[in-house]
Structures are given as C-alpha cells and as structure tokens.
Write a structure and sequence with these properties.
4-stranded antiparallel β-sheet, alpha+beta, 8-stranded antiparallel β-sheet, elongated
C-alpha cells in the first residue's frame, strides 16, 4: 500500500496523528485510504461541474491542482450553490526570495483531508487542509527553509472585489458570498485591490491560514473572529477533525473484509459527507444533496433523503436526523411530503411526492442509535404522510395505491415514482381523484410494497412510544395481488381491467426486500433473477429485464444499473436464505463497476453490460447502498 508523509515538520500534527488506531496502523484510519477519489482539476471560469474536497456541511470546495499547472496551492474555493470559482487558487505559497517554480510532487485526497508536497531549489514544503466547520477550512503549511513563506492569490474571479479587515483578506462576490483569508499572528498582509500578498517572519517553518466562506446573510465579522480564534489554537481544530473522521470510519469498517472492499465503504462515507450541506436560506436543517458535482443537484429530494439517512444512521446519526427533518419542514397540511426543496423555496417542487421510505430511514436511526425521542418526534408526521397516500392516491378505493401528481401531468407522476421514464409507464394515462390529486391508471407494486413496509414500521413505532396506529393497512394483500402467476414475477396492474403490465423490471425486487413475498414466490422469481438474459447481467439487477426489446443500456430507468435497486434485489435474496448467491452478486458489483475500488467517484448509475460509469458523479444514493451491501456481505 502506498504511504504518504504525515507532516514530518509540523511536530504538533505528528503527535496528533500518532494516536494508536489498532491493527490498521498507528497514523489513523484515513491514512490507509490515500487517493480515495480523484479530484485533480485546475479550473478556469467555465468549469461549473466539479467534484471537490468539501466537508462539515460547507458550501465551498477545493480541488487538487494538475501537476502541469504550476499552482502551489489547493484550487478554489468553489461555490457549490452558485457553481462558480471564487479564485483559481485563493492561497498559493512559496519561500521568500525563491525565484524558482515551486512544483507539486505529491498530491492526495485522504478522507477528510487533502495533502500536497512540493519543492524547488530553495527547499521542500508540505500543505494540508481540513475543515473546521461549515464556514472555515484550516490550511497548515510547513517547510524546511528558514526564508519564511510568501502567499498570494491566483486567478481571482473577475467579479470579486478584495479588501482588508485587520489581518484578514476579504474577497466579496456580487452573489452575496464572501471569502475570508485569515493569517497566523505575525504574518504581514497587504492588499492592492486586485490581489493580496502576505509574508511570515524569516525563520518561520510552520504557519496556518484559515479560509472561510460566508453565505448571504452570514455575519462576516463573526465568522472572521471565529477564524482568528481558531488560529490561536489550530491543533484543536485538527484534533477535532481527526476524531470526527476516525469515528466515521471506525463505525463503518469491518475487520474481515479485503482492503479493496474497505475502499468501497470508505469512498461511500466520503461521498455522503462531501454532499453534506449546512442549513442555508430556505433549507432550515442541514442535509445531504444527491451530488455536489452537478449544477442541478443543489437541493434536497425526498426519497433520496430517506436513503441517505438510512446509511448515515450508521456513522453520522445527527446528520441523518436533520436530513429527515429538512424534508418534513415542508410537509403540507394534508400530510404530503413534497418532491424537493432548495435554498430558495421558489424552486421547490410540490407537483409530486416521492416513494414512501421515510419510516425505514427513521427505523434505521432507531436500530443503530436506540433513539426513541426521535421516533416520538417523527411519528405523527410519518403517520400523516402514510395516510396521505390512501387519501390522495387510491383512485378506486381498493387499498392499492398509484403514483400520481398534484397537477395531473404524466411528467410529475413519473417523478413521483422516482423512476421517471420507466418502461412500465409507457402508454399510461392520468385519472382525476380530486382538485389537487391525480393518479396514474395503474397500481404499482413497489409503491404498495413500500406502504406495507411503512405500515409495519408505524405499528412498531406506535408500540414503542405508546401511541395508536389508526390508519389503513392492506399489507397482507399486496404480494398476492401483484404476483403475476403466468410469468412468476411481481408487476404493476392496470386499474381498468386488473391486467398485469407484464414487462419484468426492478420494481419487482421490492416485495423481496420488504419481506412480504412468500417463499414460493421467491422460488418462482428466482428463475428470472438468476437468468443471465434477464436480471443476472454483468452488473446484476438492472432496471429492466435485459432481454426486453425496450431495454436501453443508457436509458436512465429503462435498463442501466441503479445501485439502490441492485441492493434491494441482493438483500431480498438474503432475506429468503440465498446468502451465498447474494455474496456472489455483491462481489460482481464491487469488482465490476468501473473504478469503484480505485480512485473514480461513485456514479449515479452504471452500464448493465459493461460497468461503465453513467450520469452524475459523486452520487449519494449509490454510496448509501454500496455501504449497505458492504455491511451485509457474508452475513
């Protein structure tokens, strides 16, 4: 395994990082996972999609410079909300009097930390950055020269205006976001308006810079004063960051897994934490976005949030709780939880909801943390949301619900299913239930399986906190109602005549995941699930049977691999006693999804027959379910 220097000059950090961490090494778990994701990018003003180093809920990120860019500093900050670079590199560093080029010779992204070493004829230096909190990242610089350090920015955004507040450089952008660069005491700082320069005293070999990022409405002076306080005791910031990440990884990693599968688990944690965003604007609680690298994913989505919270329950339970609270902040009086929410609520989408998995997320938090108080807090909201489905999405009142919309459009109904363009919706039409309630003209097996699961969990919660469960429950009827005896698989049904939409696809995995199918139904479905022409593909369990003429390898929900669906199928096999087969399929996912055990980011979906990375990178819900597969493996 490749090893990286652990700040050989900064003795303070050496002492912190020498904490014993068991059999995995004495430097800390993060240092077993160098180059966890490739985030090398020297940006220009046109780059708006970028995976970056970000942590602690911050809305700013950084990348590692390309080796040929001659930038001796971390690139950024990048505004994740406004998708712009405040600078190509707000902080670059060299040795005083050195006219040579300080060229990076080692770059890596550790979980929760970025590292760079560089050298010139004047000497060698190392830089490390960690996040202190949602506003501030702390940069530590050390070198082996007594010349002292000089700092300057490079490639400032053309709309940024620079100024000074005491020993802090203030870079303001018209968006309302502001970058503060606060230097260690004793550093001389000046600003020309176009750039700044800073210089430490001769003989200085270790120094620090706090890089802070203020949002619209933040108290800039309060953030600056917080950064000044951090520089009085920077070791506490480093120690806190180290302990936080050590906690994340130690709660997730197993002692009996191969290192390459450990990398999948750690990369999943890094992906989820990188997509953590603090409360801001009309987002009243912190939460997790689907991907920080894509322009349109800067809000919170409902069933995404349920999945993220279920995974976060294992290692970041308070973030998991707040992620759920964020969505319920916008619960409507009739119980509906809307599709997605943003920092500006004018962008929110209330045309549809999303599949009901909120109780599952709350139950995972309870399972891992025994948090009865959170169950009590959420129970009335969860119950109201559950009842909403039967009130607004059961067109004929038979207890079997449909996906739909508030505006009567097929588009929003597809969104409500979460499977926007799925083959099963080809030819569907809308039915009016009421003034703000429409249903598709088909009852969906996955929706009703989820509702059966929610009913079971709501009964559990009610018993736990001494409440009454007073809602419809058709759980006992769902499996038989949706099982097509002719093909031996679960399918949606048309309302008009009860006929099956007999095109087997991923929605049929759901009854096995929620354990409402019979053993006989699993035995029959197993023929399709293990058929290499249907579901047992190179990457297993695609979103549509591979032999369906309508299946498209890059057709979003019409054929590619979505790892939540693959997880549900694999876990379904475990639920019915097929553990060895589930392990075999898990290995296929880990070994065959392109770049998963290497340094490639986790993607939204993957090529069914190739493992090719598709759609958005740094994708949270893929990470969530990879983490669950890792946890389940071999059990």
């Amino acid at each position: 395994m490749r090893r990286y220097p652990v700040f050989s000059v900064l003795t303070l950090l050496v002492s912190l990082l020498a904490v014993s961490c068991g059999s995995r090494g004495s430097a800390g778990l993060r240092y077993d996972f160098g180059d966890i994701i490739d985030i090398v990018l020297t940006p220009d003003s046109t780059v708006r999609r970028a995976g970056c180093f970000t942590d602690a809920g911050s809305w700013m990120g950084f990348t590692l410079p390309q080796r040929d860019s001659r930038i001796n500093g971390f690139c950024g900050p990048f505004s994740i909300e406004h998708r712009l670079w405040m600078a190509q590199a707000a902080v670059t560093v060299g040795f005083a009097g050195d006219e040579g080029v300080m060229q990076p010779d080692s770059l890596t992204y550790f979980p929760g930390e970025v590292f760079m070493s560089s050298s010139s004829e004047a000497g060698r230096m190392e830089q490390r950055m960690v996040f202190a909190d949602r506003t501030t990242a702390l940069l530590a610089v050390s070198g082996d020269s007594d010349a002292g350090f000089v700092f300057a920015g490079k490639g400032w955004n053309s709309r940024v205006r620079l100024g000074m507040r005491e020993n802090t450089v203030v870079a303001e952008h018209p968006s309302g976001e502001t970058v503060l660069l606060t230097f260690s005491p004793g550093t001389e700082v000046s600003c020309s308006g176009d750039n700044y320069s800073a210089r430490t005293a001769e003989g200085c070999r270790n120094t620090w810079v706090a890089v802070s990022f203020c949002y619209e409405g933040d108290d800039v002076e309060a953030v600056r004063q917080s950064a000044v306080a951090m520089l009085d005791s920077p070791e506490q910031v480093v120690e806190s960051n180290f302990a936080r990440w050590e906690g994340y990884l130690s709660r997730v990693l197993r002692d009996d897994m191969p290192h390459e599968y450990d990398r999948v688990a750690v990369k999943s944690v890094v992906t989820l934490i990188s997509n953590w965003r603090a409360a801001r604007g009309d987002l009243f609680h912190e939460g997790v976005i689907p991907s920080h690298s894509v322009t349109y994913f800067t809000g919170f989505w409902a069933w995404d949030s349920w999945r993220f919270s279920a995974a976060l329950a294992r290692f970041a339970p308070e973030l998991a709780r707040n992620n759920i609270r964020a969505m319920f902040d916008y619960q409507l009086p009739d119980g509906m939880v809307i599709d997605c929410i943003y920092t500006d609520s004018r962008w929110n989408n209330a045309r549809d909801s999303k599949p009901p998995l909120a109780c599952w997320a709350v139950d995972e938090i309870f399972t891992y943390n025994q948090d009865t108080a959170f169950v009590r807090e959420m129970y009335p909201k969860l119950l109201s949301y559950y009842k909403w489905w039967f009130a607004k999405r059961d067109h004929n009142g038979n207890g079997m619900c449909e996906f739909g919309s508030t505006d009567g459009t097929l588009e929003a109904a597809g969104w409500e299913s979460g499977m926007d363009n799925a083959i099963r919706f080809d030819g569907a039409s809308m039915l009016r239930n009421g003034p703000d309630a429409w249903s598709l003209d088909q009852e969906s097996v996955d929706l009703n399986a989820y509702l059966a699961f929610e009913a079971r969990l709501l009964r559990k919660f009610a018993a736990l906190i001494g409440e009454e469960f007073d809602a419809p429950d058709y759980s006992a009827d769902v499996a038989d109602y949706f099982f097509d005896e002719e093909i031996g698989y679960f399918c949606d049904r048309k309302i008009a005549d009860g006929s099956f939409i007999a095109e087997p696809a991923c929605e049929g995995y759901t009854p096995f995941w929620v354990r409402i199918a019979s053993d006989e139904q699993m035995a029959r479905a197993l023929k399709l699930l293990t058929d290499t022409s249907k579901f047992s593909t190179y990457i297993p369990f695609p979103t549509a049977a591979a032999d369906n003429p309508k299946c498209s390898p890059d057709g979003y929900w019409r054929g590619p691999i979505w790892l939540d669906q693959t997880y549900q199928a694999i876990r379904g096999l475990r639920n019915y006693g097929y553990g060895d087969l589930a392990d075999e399929y898990t290995r296929q996912v880990f070994d065959r999804c392109q770049g998963l055990t290497g340094d490639a980011p986790i993607h939204e979906n993957y090529g069914t027959h190739t493992g090719q990375r598709l759609q958005a990178s740094h994708f949270s819900w893929s990470a969530s379910h990879l983490l669950m597969m890792y946890e389940d493996y071999g059990k």
